[in-house]
Amino acid sequence: MNVISFVMVGTNDLKKASAFYEKVLATINLKLFAESEKYHSFSHEDEPNQKVFYVTKPYDGKPATIGNGNMIALETDTKEKVDAFHSTAIANGAKDEGAPGVRGDGNYYAYIRDLDGNKLTVRTILNK
User: Fold this and answer.
1) How far apart are CA 80 and CA 85, in angstroms?
2) According to the CATH classification, is domain 7-59+70-124 in 3.40.109.10?
3) Rounded distance, CA 101 to CA 124, Å?
4) What is the pTM of this model?
5) CA 113 → CA 24, 60, 68, 86, 117, distances in Å?
6) What angle, rounded to 10 degrees, do the helices at 14-26 and 79-91 form?
7) Residue 116 neighbours by CB distance under 10 Å
8) How many other CB atoms sit within 10 Å of the CB of residue 89?
């Protein structure tokens, strides 16, 4: 059983954030699956009914803000996909928070901040 059901990031510009994530998440085989006025959801290409990533306007109607120390970690199966995630994110306005490379645990990571300042990392496990 997975502990995490899905991930949700807040945005103040749903249209802009969704366009960003459509490009970035495609690099790790996630695609836009559902849209509403409040959120857009993304799922694995081979499991379209399992929504795993949401971009949303805050439910309380207040502005979206980032959390200091919060980070979302995504996983993929190749170094090339980590590289593509990072370069696609940067090319579409993300801030670099750590170029692709092997980190202290021996796995391959890249770090970005999205258009609203949310921090994400994507990794692949090298020694499977």
Assistant:
1) 9
2) no
3) 10
4) 0.90
5) 12, 23, 12, 10, 5
6) 150
7) 18
8) 27
Tokens of 109: 């990571």
For 89-100, the pLDDT digits (tens) are: 999 999 999 999
Q: Please name the residues in contact with 85: beta carbons below 8 A apart, sequence gap of 6 or more.
A: 24, 27, 28, 74, 76, 110, 112, 122
Q: Cα-atom radius of gyration of the chain, to the nearest Å? A: 14
Q: Which sequence spans correspond to the domains of the chain?
A: 7-59+70-124
Identify the DSSP state of 76: -
User: Which pLDDT does position 31 carry in this prediction?
Assistant: 94
Tokens of 86: 């990072």
Give the residue ranges of the chain where pLDDT is below 70: 1-2, 48
